[in-house]
Write a structure and sequence with these properties.
The chain contains three helices and six strands. It has 143 residues and is an alpha+beta fold. The chain has a single domain (11-140), classed as Roll (Thiol Ester Dehydrase, Chain A), CATH 3.10.129.10. A hairpin with a 5-residue loop joins strand 5 (115-123) and strand 6.
Length: 143
């Protein structure tokens, strides 16, 4: 899969990618895990835990932004064997949340060779939209 072009990805690659993300220190800190992973489509989940609450007793916006950012990286990398870097992430916080599990998914808006635009959203267990984001990501060839 060298070259980062659009091509079918193998089940082995998707298993490796799941492990790559789930073993990252930041995902472990936040409690993020893969819920679903297919080529170009993914859902990740994150528990609302006391360590992620702000002084109002609600999930901190930074934690919500982290899952919105993370799902974009997962979706891009599930389609192409590349590395990515966030250039810009514009977030909207829609509803507060203080308990449960959050689920994030993303949809590609424009798949460029070097820059990719992706929308993401995070919902709670009842389907309430907690936040959304538009991400601009740099596509980096693997070294």
């Amino acid at each position: 899969m060298k070259g980062g072009g659009v091509m079918a990805v193998s089940d082995d690659y998707l298993q490796w990618l799941t492990k790559e993300f789930e073993e990252s220190p930041y995902w472990k800190l936040l409690g993020i895990s893969m819920d679903k992973l297919e080529q170009g489509e993914a859902v990740i989940k994150m528990p609302v835990k006391d360590e992620l609450l702000n002084s109002n007793g609600m999930m901190h916006g930074g934690a919500i932004a982290s899952i919105l950012d993370s799902i974009i990286g997962v979706v891009i990398r599930s389609s192409r064997d590349v590395r990515v870097a966030t250039i810009s992430l514009t977030t909207q916080f829609i509803a507060p949340v203080k308990e449960g599990i959050l689920y994030a998914e993303a949809k590609t808006i424009n798949k460029g060779k070097r820059i990719q635009y992706v929308e993401s959203k995070v919902i709670d267990e009842k389907g309430t939209i907690i936040g959304t984001a538009l991400g601009t990501f740099a596509i980096k060839e693997k070294q």
